[in-house]
UniProtKB/TrEMBL annotation:
Keywords recorded for this protein, A-Z: Signal
Entry keyword annotation includes Signal: yes
Protein name: Alginate export domain-containing protein
Signal peptide range in chain numbering: 1-18
Lineage: Bacteria, Pseudomonadati, Pseudomonadota, Betaproteobacteria, Neisseriales
Protein origin, superkingdom: Bacteria
Length: 407
């Protein structure tokens, strides 16, 4: 798997958006809202050029296809796939990575009960930069094309699973069984890579209950083959007219690899947390501040020991597949402004920082929408010591020019 250095920071943090299929079982007041009928076929063609002073440039061509259609009154099929073809200054040095995001069938027993089977991309969590309850998404990123968190959650492998969903007036329940299909990730670009998406047998329960219009928490329980159960909790709450507060927590006994590499044995209870505030103004400007914590990740002293060990490179490679915090404490600041300065121009900027070694990543994007075409210019820069969390990235700024065509 080839991961662009330009998007390295995207590997260190992930976004938080609602699960597409869970939206099919929203509570009654939400389901009754009128919605435009979705198109069966959506196609994205993308071309990008990457440049950084003093470093080798590159180009990328991507094709992203999604088909979501009805096969009958009670049957629905979904297929989503993405191919990224990278070129290191010449077509002869190209390398392609295919990501089968989703391929599944869905059966509706009635208006409140669904059964899905196939490869499905679940997206749990209310956090913006880190999602500790996104249990099944860990390790499923094959190709990173942007540091934007939404891109990481969208452009990753789904898990092969059987999923049952049930809706009541004020509650919903999801049960998932995901079998083991392979032992480990594949390095072949065209692989289905079930070793990354289904490395062990797993079962997941997710339950939501609406206590009121403004209070709808979610509880999760994960059981993995050979591992201790993990608990999860999600809650967001509107504060006033413009601010949303959110908290996402997961906890359980864990035995990460890095303590064993350092000659220690650690299978203690670890808490993982993402909590923050998002403010949205009347001018479509949104500001987010988020704190992040993983009790099972190395703190500053352990990170320094790990950086001096022969396992440091292996640890960073493990972290490069997304979904976890490389170090114990982190923070995210993000600003997005729709129709900024002029119509159809969106501006986004963010900084992800380690609170342990104070290294960080800065990323910004200007995106202009022109009918079916988007033009985007992205900038990225890392700062920190050579062995810090973000200091391994490019110290000089890098640029990416992106052309998107939607059909």
């Amino acid at each position: 798997m080839r991961l662009s250095m330009l998007a390295l920071a995207g590997l260190l943090c992930g976004p938080a958006w609602a699960d597409d299929d869970a939206a099919a079982l929203q509570l009654a007041d939400q389901a009754s809202l009128p919605a435009e009928k979705p198109r069966d076929l959506k196609l994205l063609l993308e071309a990008a050029a990457i440049a950084s002073p003093g470093a080798q440039g590159g180009q990328r061509l991507s094709v992203d296809l999604r088909w979501d259609g009805r096969l009958g009154p009670q049957w629905r099929a979904v297929f989503a796939d993405r191919l990224d073809q990278d070129f290191a200054d010449s077509p002869q040095r190209g390398h392609g990575v295919n990501t089968l995001k989703e391929a599944y069938l869905s059966h509706e027993f009635d208006a409140a009960t669904l059964l899905d089977f196939g490869r499905i991309n679940t997206r749990y969590g209310v956090g913006v930069g880190y999602n500790p309850t996104d249990f099944l998404g860990v390790g499923t990123v094959r190709s990173v094309v942007s540091a934007d968190q939404a891109s990481l959650r969208e452009n990753r492998l789904g898990n092969a699973m059987l999923r049952w969903q049930r809706l009541w007036d004020n509650a919903s329940l999801t049960a998932i069984w995901s079998p083991k299909l392979a032992d480990g990730p594949s390095g072949h670009g065209m692989s289905l890579d079930f070793g990354a998406s289904n490395p062990r047998e797993r079962a997941l329960l997710a339950y939501s209950y609406r206590f009121s219009e403004a209070l709808n928490p979610q509880w999760l329980l994960l059981q993995e083959q050979g591992r201790s159960p993990q608990l999860g909790f999600n809650l967001s709450r509107v504060l006033g007219d413009a601010t949303v507060a959110y908290v996402e927590w997961a906890g359980g006994r864990q035995a990460p690899d890095w303590p064993r590499w350092l000659g220690e044995v650690d299978d203690s209870w670890n808490n993982r947390l993402a909590s923050g505030l998002t403010w949205t103004g009347s001018n479509k400007l949104s500001l987010t501040l988020e704190g992040e914590y993983d009790g099972g990740a190395p703190g500053l002293d352990d990170w320094r020991r790990l950086a001096r060990s022969p396992f440091y490179r292996l640890y960073r490679m493990q972290m490069a597949t997304g979904g976890v915090l490389p170090a114990r404490r982190a923070a995210l600041a993000r600003a997005s402004w729709q129709d900024a300065l002029l119509d159809n121009l969106d501006l986004t900027a963010m900084r992800a920082a380690s609170l342990d070694d104070h290294s960080g990543m800065n990323w910004a994007e200007a995106r202009y929408h022109l009918g079916p075409v988007d033009l985007a210019l992205q900038w990225q820069r890392f700062d920190g010591g050579a062995l810090s969390q973000y200091g391994a990235g490019l110290a000089k700024p890098s640029w990416q020019l992106v052309f998107d065509y939607f059909h």
